[in-house]
Amino acid sequence: MRGNIRVRLDRIEARMPAPEDGPSGASEKLRAVLDELASLKSSGASYYRGGVLVEGEDVPGRILGPGYTLGELVRLAAERAADGGAFGRDEVPAAVESFRRLSGGSTDGWDEPVGGRGET
C-alpha cells in the first residue's frame, strides 16, 4: 500500500454508504481489518527508545515469510480481525473481497511483493 494511509482511509470511507443509525456491520468489519492492517504494517517500523535504536518486529514477514504480497497481507489482517472477534473466520474471504472492492477494485499490485523482499 503506497502513499499516505490517512488519504487511503478517507477514500475508502468516502465510498462507503452513510450509515443511517450508526456504523453498519460491514463498516465495522472493514474498520477492524484496516486496524489490523495498520498494526501489521507498523510492526516493522524502527524507533528510538532512550536514545537506543529498537528494530521493528516485522510481524507479517515473520508469519508470511519474505516476499509476501498485498493480497496475503490483507488476508492476514482479516484473519487477525476475525480472531479478535470482529467477525467469524468463515467471513474472512468476504472481508478480503470487500477490502479489494472498496480500495478501487483494482488488482494492480495485489500479487506483487510488498514486504520482506529478499530478507530472511
Structure description:
There is one protein chain. The protein is mainly alpha-helical and 120 residues long. It has one domain. The chain has five helices and four strands. The chain has helices at 5-15, 25-42, 59-64, 70-83, 92-102; strands spanning 47-49, 52-54, 68-69, 113-115. Helix 2 (25-42) packs across helix 4 (70-83) and helix 4 (70-83) crosses helix 5 (92-102). The mean pLDDT is 83.
Terminal CA distance reads 22 Å
**Total domain count:** 1
Give the mean pLDDT. Answer: 83
Number of beta-strand segments: 4
| Series of H and E elements | HHEEHEHHE
Helix/strand class: mainly alpha
Largest sheet: 2 strands, antiparallel
Question: Uncertain spans, ≥5 residues at pLDDT below 50?
Answer: none
Overall 3D shape:
globular
The number of distinct helices, counting runs of at least 4 residues, comes to 5
Quick gist of this model?
With about 120 residues, this protein is mainly alpha-helical. It has helices at about 5-15, 25-40, 60-65, 70-85, 90-100, and strands spanning about 45-50, 50-55, 70, 115. The chain has one domain.
